[in-house]
Design goal:
Blueprint lengths: L3 E4 L2 H6 L27 H18 L19 E4 L1 H17 L16 H7 L6 H6 L3 E3 L7 E4 L5 E6 H15 L4 H6 L11 H22 L3 E4 L1
Parallel strand pairs: 3-5
Antiparallel strand pairs: 1-2, 1-6, 3-6, 4-5
Length: 230
Amino acid sequence: MIVDLFVGTLTRYYSEQWQNSRTRGGADSPFNTPKDPNAVNDPVELQGIVTQWREDASNKLKEHLSEPLAWQEGMLPPYQVGDVGFHGYGGVILLTAYTSTGLLPRPADFQKTWNGDPAFDAMMKEPKKNTLWEIINCSLWLPASFQFGIGMKDPSGQPSRAGSIDVLWKALEHLNESNWKASPEHIAGWRAHTLEETVSFETQTQYGFAVFYDMCKLARDSRSPMKLHY
């Protein structure tokens, strides 16, 4: 299953003018549903839709924001795509679960899914919202500071969960500090791992974490949104 992290403008993301033969294995943009006579594919029109959505989202989140949402939209800003993959994404989910719950022992071997995992199940049964999970479990992260994930509709009108790039970065730093205390250079090297079923759980979590870490840093430095694509 294809799972990517896209960093760039939402105009670019929803225009689909970033995809290639690999990424097109994921879901079609709700704006560009095949054979839909009302499909929107003009970047200028999409930029207007995204800009209005950002204003509406800013109003929705105003009690959580120190200033209105603002970032450069359109097709001119650069973008990046990080291939985290289903199993790399699963590694991040399970890393979050085991770090949050402190449950031991951790798996030794590669994990095909998080369904039925004892740490994941324990995290989901917690009576209060788990802070780390609330931050990681989003499909869109915005360049602003607000706590937890917030349910809202994305620019296409689909139900989504939005989080903060700044808070995600702090969560990733916490995961690193709790598990490895690795340098940025060391983390970057983890992206060279190949995720096969023969690798260890540690390698799986390191790869997924490294993609999240690098892409979040790009989004934070450029003050751009980050979108989970699958």
